[in-house]
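User: Sequence in, structure out. Go.
Assistant: Echoing your sequence, followed by the structure tokens.
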Amino acid sequence: MRFHHPMVVAALLLTATLLSCKRPAAEQYPEKTSLALSEASRMLLHSDIRGARTLLQEHNRFQGTLLLELLTSAEQEQELLHQANQCLQQNQYHTLNKLLSQAEKNGQTTPELLRYRSIPQALQALQLFCQRMPWESSEDLQNALDWLQPYAPALEKSPAFQRFWSQQQNLLVPLRQRELQRRCAQISNEMDIALRQGQLPAAWAAGARLQALNPEHPLFLFLDWPGKTLRGQLPLLPPSSPELQEGCELAFALCWEQLPAARQKRLLSALAALPPESFRTVSGLALLAGHHNRPEWLALAFQRWQAQATPNEPLPLFFRDYVLSLLPRPKQTAACCRQYTCPGFTDFFTAFNVLLSPINTQNPRK
């Protein structure tokens, strides 16, 4: 702890000056007193107030002087600050409050000592703050920071608290980014559900919410939102990232019915270069499978739908095409072998069970 008593240093200098002025001749120069003052000054520079007081007390010349009185007062203040600091380190807040109250009664309070008055409450607030970690949302963190803010001035002189405070504030940005991504993914899923159910108005309504939430979403690289049409200039196809592919699939499914046949064909050719397993949406995969007449892709779309379907969600729009793809065609029945891979009896039975599940739910066996 640094020494903050300029009056004591000034008194030392004044004493040394008065002593040098009082000597009648050079041979009577108080050398021992001067050496004591020099040594006491050195001790004070190293915050050794007790050592300086003890040293000067040994000389009769300083007995009853203002210098010793100031040193004694400074030593008492230093001891009080030491005791207050120990109370803080040992979490003895009640003892600290008693110490401060007694110092006030004795007239021994200083601005630095009074600063300890607010520290116990601030530390308790900090403990409560830490008990709430980790943060579930940016809103929780922002509310906690706002709550702790009034206590921060009592703690901000600590470098450790400064680093901690800065780290907590820096957490807000990644938390908000993750929340934005999570919300965007939720709305994208709502769009996919609406599209695979053939509910275009609901899908466009979800798109409006997404545009209001995040105009930079990859969907709007493909979609001209004000006109609700595909952009004339699309990003390079096939998409180069999963995020771009999801935006591409949703945009195509939204605008598919309004596209000219020639453009539909070009877009389908570009998407056909992607493996069906890489498709991010059920609606996009079903769209591609239906127009390319690929039963195995329809089967994959149906499996995706089964895995993702919400409770009580109606059958998807492509379910009829999927069931028909399971039935053997006349040419296949006559042929010695199948001309292409087609799902077998197990797939058909699974689809039939899904079709009957609402009936079984409404009419349980007694």
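User: And one key feature?
Assistant: The two ends are 84 Å apart (CA to CA).
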